[in-house]
Amino acid sequence: MDETFKLTMHLHTAFVGIVLILAVINYFLINNSLDYDTLRKRVRTILPIYYLFLATVIFTGFILLGIAKFDMYQSVIFMVIVWFVLLLTTIKRYKKFKSLKRDDKRRIRRFIRFTKRKYLIDITFILIAIALVYAIK
Q1: Do 89 and 46 form a contact (C-beta atoms < 8 A)?
Q2: I need a surface site. Which of 4, 107, 129, 137 has the fewest CB within 10 A?
Q3: What angle, rounded to 10 degrees, do the helices at 2-29 and 36-67 form?
Q4: Residues 6 or more apart from 62 whose CB is under 8 A from it?
């Protein structure tokens, strides 16, 4: 059981790191000079990858929680809250993306501004969660 916990912990940590890297990459890939077609391709390419790794993070987190006999610590609760914030803001971002029109430059700029803020919040929350978990150990 101890080996399963260690392996799952390493996988969980690696997937959190991948989500952090994806958030940083997405932040730098979204810039104000994007036209609609390029923006659409980037969002439709990156979003499924981001969802995939968010899903693996929660899946490995649930495995770790099960191995730990569902003991809920403050760090676990905070990680779950962070995961939900990431998921909900990603869903909100996708809804905003679906409502964009090719000709509406103002809404495209607002979407890009919202997306940059969203990824900054994602990066900040992930780094706080990592710092909190390692500070408690």
Answers
A1: no
A2: 137
A3: 160
A4: none
Consecutive H or E run containing 74: helix 74-98
Single-letter code of the amino acid located at 96: K
CA geometry: angle 89, 93, 98, nearest 5 deg:
150
Select from 128, 49, 60, 61 the least CA-distant residue to 90: 49
Q: Indicate the burial class of 25 (C-beta count within 10 angstroms; 0-12, 13-18, 19 or more).
A: middle
Residue 32 has what pLDDT? 63
- Whole-prediction pTM value? 0.86
Q: To which residue do tokens 């929350």 refer? A: 125
> CA 105, 109, 114, 118 torsion: positive or negative?
positive
Q: Please state the rounded mean pLDDT for residues 53-79.
A: 87
